[in-house]
Amino acid sequence: MASAASSRCPCVIRVLSCTFSDPVFPTQNGKVAIVTGGTEGIGYQTVKHLARLGMHVIIAGKSESEGQKAVRKIKEETLTGKVEFLYCDLASMKSIRQFVQQFRAKNCPLHVLVNNAGVMLVPERKTEDGFEEHFGLNYLGHFLLTNLLLDMLKQSGTHSNNARIITVSSATHYVGELHLNDLQSRCSYSPHGAYAQSKLALVLFTYRLQHLLTANGSHVTANVVDPGVVNTELYKHVFWVVKVVKWMTAWLCFKTPEEGASTTIYAAVSPEMEGAGGCYLYNEERTKSADIAYDEELQRRLWTESCKMVGISDETSRLH
Questions:
Q1: 63-77, 173-187, 298-312 — which is least confidently predicted?
Q2: What is the mean pLDDT of residues 247-266?
Q3: How many whole angstroms from its chain centre is CA 233?
């Protein structure tokens, strides 16, 4: 299925995105959302649009100053006070657990969780817990966060209005390989390989999660989105030559962060997605992910290993 990724010329994506019209979604008054990495780029635009629809949105991020700056700016742009920042470093299992405790203390429901934050092509380095950074932050951080918030999502979802989990992956997952015997890329580190593996893991995780939610009759759906090629700060670790080319062609070949956020917003609030889970969405349409992502045995094995790595029990004690 790698050809599906290679066939997506970013320049074509940009031109096509210009033809999109802003959809009109129903108001979301009374609903609560958490968006990781909501201080800039796609995450920021996601927070702004959800707040504009009336949602109470919590930005989960690791920079207090950037978080408060984003909150002030969104309040000014949307004229709503329903945005706040809570500290959460996805590269720290301890920080994630503390964030969940803080959120629980608010005694509010949770209708939408957007797993958006991530790093891309960073040099080889480890998280606080000793995980390779792409895998530890992009994948394991969101895996733990989602599992710790599952009970609140289940309590908030109803038969006619499911709670929703939206995870941001990438077309890079089409060329990703999951090395179950070396998830930390210790044998041979490649920034591109590690990033692609983390994005493939997010797709496998989403499909397995939806299977478990469905099996247990939970009113929660889990979907994964591909934002396309977006002009964001994620490219700060690429070679300088690539940065120059990006700077020269971004206006033509890249989506804006607002355009990149459109599919995430669609998955979070569109009536068309009510009750629909286990989908891979691109340009607000359901499409096929990499063939390997549908391997149920691989999904199961990754889930079990992930539970061990983050120190939680397997799904049987939590999803029943």
A1: 173-187
A2: 71
A3: 16
Among candidate residues 199, 178, 46, the one with its CA nearest the CA of residue 112: 46
Residues annotated as catalytic are: 195
User: What is the rounded distance in angstroms from the CA atom of residue 146 to the CA atom of residue 221?
Assistant: 12
CA–CA distance, 232 with 185 (Å, rounded to integer): 26
Domain assignment of residue 101, given as a range = 32-310
Sequence-separated contacts (24+) of 180-183 with Cβ below 8 Å: 180/298, 180/301, 180/302, 180/305, 183/132, 183/135, 183/305, 183/309
Query: What are the pLDDT digits (tens) for 276-298?
Result: 999 999 999 999 999 999 999 99
In this prediction, residue 23 carries a pLDDT of 63
Neighbours of 240 (CB within 10 A): 7
CA distance 88 to 132: 18
User: Which amino acid is residue 129, in one-letter code?
Assistant: D
Checking 304-313 for CB contacts under 8 A at 24+ apart, the result is 305/180, 305/183, 306/139, 306/140, 306/143, 306/205, 307/147, 309/131, 309/140, 309/183, 310/93, 310/140, 310/143, 310/144, 310/147, 311/93, 312/144, 312/147, 312/148
Q: Give a yes or no: residue 221 inside a domain.
A: yes
Question: Which among 10, 26, 61 has a CA at the least distance from the CA of 272?
Answer: 26
- What pTM was computed for the model? 0.86
pLDDT of residue 80: 78
Query: Tell me, what CATH number does 186's domain have?
Result: 3.40.50.720
SS3 228: coil
Q: What are phi and psi of 86, to 5 degrees?
A: -130, 135
Domains: count for the chain: 1
Cα(290)–Cα(1) distance, integer angstroms:
5
Instruction: Decide which of 126 and 256 is more confident.
Output: 126
